[in-house]
Amino acid sequence: MTQRNDVPGARPVSDAAATDAAGPPLIATQGLYAGYGSAAILRNVEIKVAAGQVVALLGPNGAGKTTTVLTLAGELKPQQGQVLYNGVGDHSPLFRRARRGLAYVGEDRTVFMSLTVSENLRVARVDNDLAYALFPELRQLARRRTGLLSGGEQQMLALARVLGRRPSLLLADELSLGLAPMIVDRLLTAIRAAADEQGLGVLLVEQHAEKALKVADYVYVLRRGEVIIEGAATDIRGRLHEVQDAYLAATK
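Above: the chain's sequence. Below: its structure in token form.
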């Protein structure tokens, strides 16, 4: 595991400790500074996500996780540094990145509440059978208006709409917020399966650190806008106390 030496109390970084993705990154940042107005929330952030890789982005509230996702999605412009999409600097907005295979799902459950489950899938141009294979419980709800579904069912539908379009890259920002642990497991398992079976690259922002570590390949931990810890998930799972210390330190 790599721990950054520009943070008080951190150990020096060993080059051998840095773990690169197996292939070229779908998306990466270089020296990224980003925020709102003139205020920089992110400072010198460098992360990458490769095809077939689930990368977890962890950190306490206010660490800059959502700012990172919004910048990668094209909703925020970098103040300094750049976002590379398939190795090329990219300043295009979200809708253009979406046409090239980027997908986003968050806590706000991007579904049409007035439409039925089946109608939501049709609008998204997703094959019903594919969506029901991901989440079989949606089949019996096909004719039910989405606004009458539980929060977990709505989020399953939102994720089915996204994965059913077979994107190349998924930005998942707190999609499990407020949901029961069993539902969280279902959502994360579906994301892991899409990475393994479809080669989907995933940046996963998740409040449940232990659950995220079970499905992730690589992990970055943010604190106050800086990456303070990074490493292979297999390593960090055994050193969860260091991640927890980063959460606690942010409140002091």
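Residues 103-166 form one domain.
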